[in-house]
Specification:
With 323 residues, the protein is an alpha/beta fold. Helix content is 43%, strand content 22%. The strands form three sheets. An eight-stranded mixed beta sheet has the order 5-4-3-10-11-14-12-13, with helices on both faces.
């Protein structure tokens, strides 16, 4: 964002806050506003500021939680009041990633076991649980304690859902990884993991980044015997490491895999070239498609189509289906 335009927008936010709530921006609020303007844009920065103003007492105690009905009341999701990322989209639109929602509705069926790796606050995991029914099962893996806690809270509001929350990260080995927001705490979806903090330090894009050690394990080391029919992976570039850690499960159970495909993240955090990630699945008997937005239809993911779908976007979603 250009300097003058950034300054004008900050003044506009200060005016909005003064008009609606009285006091001018404090030094702390001003710093947060400038960060959110850079990372999230004007509308989301305004949303975050006004939510924090209106819920100041609650936020002092660790945050305000909002329970919202999603997909026309199909399930309830719990959002943090200061989440200007995933939570914002759900609260504003009642849905999140409509193309993924459409793909789930066509491909997740009653009785399936679904693995959600990088479940975040659980929108897609809860949607899957509503689709698989009482005979199915959803396993949601999420390393961020706050996100995992919100998912557990949401689960308590949705009776009859068979959904297990595992508060950990998946990798290609058992141990620990470092979890960071890279300085973007207001977006619950901006959570990155790696075992080397120097790698994460080099990717910081906001002030005051937070780091914590979290448990990690390879899926095959604990859950190889668990039949899985559908896997969703969205772990900000760590997908190749997750896939290697469940290589035997993929060979044994042959699930469909829906994966985020973010070339820069795959290189920086997955340590893999994007083409090599696609090839890894092809060598194991999977065909690859790209998920079309907003319809959720699929088309073959050759290099040209992937490049066209990516354009200037940060990522697309790809589908690996067993031959």
């Amino acid at each position: 964002m250009a300097g003058p335009d950034r300054a004008v927008r900050r003044v506009a936010l200060a005016a909005i806050a003064r008009f609606l709530d009285g006091p001018p921006l404090s030094a702390g609020e001003s710093a947060a506003v400038m960060r959110d303007l850079d990372l999230l844009g004007f509308r989301k920065a305004a949303w975050g500021l006004l939510l924090k103003r209106r819920a100041a007492a609650a936020l002092q105690d660790g945050g305000m939680t909002i329970l919202a009905r999603a997909l026309g009341g199909r399930f309830v999701v719990a959002c943090s009041g200061d989440d200007s990322g995933v939570g914002w989209e759900i609260l504003e639109h009642g849905t999140y990633e409509p193309h993924v929602v459409a793909f789930y509705q066509r491909n997740v069926r009653p009785g399936m076991t679904v693995l959600d790796v990088g479940a975040n606050i659980g929108f897609h995991a809860l949607h899957a649980a509503s689709l698989v029914g009482s005979e199915g099962r959803v396993i949601a893996v999420e390393p961020d304690p706050r996100n995992a806690g919100l998912l557990r809270l949401a689960l308590a509001q949705n009776s009859g859902f068979r959904l297990e929350v595992i508060e950990a990260a998946l990798s290609d080995r058992d141990g620990e990884v470092i979890l960071s927001d890279l300085g973007n705490p207001s977006n619950s979806g901006a959570r990155f993991v790696h075992e080397n903090q120097a790698v994460l330090d080099g990717l910081v894009h906001g002030p005051a980044p937070r780091f914590r050690n979290v448990p990690a394990f390879a899926w095959d080391s604990r859950y190889l015997a668990t039949p899985i029919q559908f896997v969703k992976m969205d772990v900000e570039g760590f997908e190749p490491r997750v896939a290697r850690g469940m290589e035997r499960a993929l060979a044994q159970h042959r699930p469909t895999v829906l994966s985020e495909f973010a070339p820069s993240n795959l290189r920086n955090l997955g340590g893999t070239e994007p083409a090599a990630y696609l090839q890894w699945f092809r060598e194991r008997g999977y065909r690859c498609s790209v998920l079309v937005e907003p319809s959720g239809a699929t088309e073959p993911a050759d290099a040209a189509r992937l490049a066209a779908r990516l354009g200037t976007a940060h990522h697309v979603d790809v589908v690996f289906e067993p031959e």
